[in-house]
Amino acid sequence: MQTESPTFTKIDIRQLLQAKVPKLEKFVPAWLVRALARLLHLEEINEFLTKSFALDPITFVHACNQFLALSTEVIGEQLLAEYLTQRPIIIANHPLGGPESIALLEIMSSYGIETKLVSNAILTHLKPLEPLLVPIPVRGDRVSVQEFRDNFASDSAIIIFPAGYCSRPLSNGVIFDYQWHFTCIKMAKKYNRPIIPVHIDGVNSKKFYRLSAIRKALRIKMSLESLYLPDEMFKQRGKHITYTIGQIIEPTIFDDSVNNCTWADRLRNHVYILGKESSQVFNPEMPLQLPAK
Question: Is this structure's pTM higher than 0.85?
Answer without folding.
Answer: yes
